[in-house]
Amino acid sequence: MAYRDRAVRRATPLLQPNEQLQHIFPAEAGAHPILARGFGLLGWLLFAEPRVIAVTDQAVVVFKANLNGTQPKEVLARLPLGSLQGQPRGLWGKVQVDGKRMYVHRKFHKEVNAALAGTATAA
Asked: In angstroms, rounded to a whole number, what is the distance separating the alpha carbons of residues 28 and 51?
């Protein structure tokens, strides 16, 4: 099962009633992921702040995620649709979520760009 399918299934119960999920992707808040992982398991445990970002028809929802970033655990913030900004580039591309820097792995850049395009037209 693909990441998107699992994430949608796990995040949907945490959304508001009748809220439609449009885009979802994992992200890392805090230290740059290469730096955090450069210290091995201890660095990952101390510096990693895994998140799942969901863009719905109503909001940008930031979830706290499990350590490997695959399962949304709780809603940390519900933000206006224009809160997701940036243009991810490189292995770990930067985006801003309500002014906070987060890093998204290259394999999810298409999902981020689709979310950015969708929120630009909705905002």
From this structure: 6
Residues 9 and 15 sit within 8 Å (Cβ to Cβ): no
CA torsion, ordered 70, 76, 81, 86, to nearest 10 deg:
-60
pLDDT in tens, 20-34: 999 999 999 987 777
pTM of the model: 0.88
Q: 57: helix, coil or strand?
A: coil
What tens digit of pLDDT does each residue of 89-116 get? 999 999 999 889 999 999 999 999 999 9
How many domains does the chain divide into? 1
What CATH number is attached to the domain comprising 87?
A: 2.30.29.30
